[in-house]
Amino acid sequence: MHGEDLFSMFFGGGSRQSQYGPLPGPSVNHPLKVSLEDLYKGKTLKLAVNRKVIVGEVTDCAKCDGQGVKMEMRQIGPGMIQQLQGACDECKGCGSKAETKSERKVLEVHIEPGAHHNQRISFKGMADERPNRETGAINFIVQEEENDTFKRKGADLLVTKELSLNQALCGFAHHLTHLDGRKIVIKTRPGEVIKPEMLSNMPYVKMVPNEGMPSRGNPFVKGNLYILFKVIFPEDGDLGPEAIATLKSILPNPDMDVDYDVEKVEEMHMSAANVRDFGKGGAEQRGDRAYDSDNEEGGGNVQCQQS
């Protein structure tokens, strides 16, 4: 911006639009809720909007003399005057006035495959018209709706699959309806074992390449489909003696029988625990000491003399 423009803005000596064209007008944003299925396949919507358009001649605002700003003088103390400048409330800072009418316009909003959450789809020059202002844009902001089956991050998709211990060890086949309506089956290879979790305490996941979301701008390149597994172990009492004996004979590394004399060895069983309580056991940690030798009844201060 030139120096004379700064001077004009603060002291009302003309307007920028006389030399450098009209100032940009405000844009309008509309949220647009879109399902993940439509973001996968792409979709074109017809949406009707109402906008104001100028009719008739444009005239200078009489209240601000076409400047778009008004000056106000205030006395803030003896011999002290404050000069304030603000946008003209009559013309909303445009400097001009004109009659407007409402116009209904139907816009075709094209949502490309792989469009992202909060992506902006703009229609320039379709906002409300204002005198001596460049008409702003109407922006539709894509709002991705949650999906019950798929979770999205970038171009990748994720589904969660619960497996029984039998399925995790012996294999499974899972029917899945993809976002474009295709029926697919996800299955393990012979001998493939699904683990409860990885050694790093991260969820155990597998991947199906090129079955994620289409890439924005290049729908032929797709992300990956991740499957997060949750292995559900049997509850206490679910396995009877016969089932336990069968599993021991089939599964590798069974527990070996231990010989001991029950009269000489204590048998102990486990109870439920939380690893967060590790280190909190004992009377000292709980603050309930059975006794304190320094405060026993009848005890006094014992002094030792060293010769």
User: Would you tell me the structural class of the helices and strands?
Assistant: mainly beta
Radius of gyration: 38 Å
Order of adjacent strands in the largest pleated sheet: 10-11-17-14
CATH superfamily of the domain at 22-144: Urease metallochaperone UreE, N-terminal domain
The CATH architecture term of the domain at 22-144 is: Sandwich
Percent in strands: 35-45%
Overall body shape: elongated
Provide the CATH top-level class of the domain at 22-144.
Mainly Beta
Helical content (DSSP H or I, runs of 4+): 10-25%
How far the N terminus sits from the C terminus, by CA atoms, comes to 94 Å
Sheet having the most strands: 4 strands, mixed
**CATH structural fold name of the domain at 22-144:** HSP40/DNAj peptide-binding domain
Mean pLDDT: 82
Low-pLDDT segments: 11-18
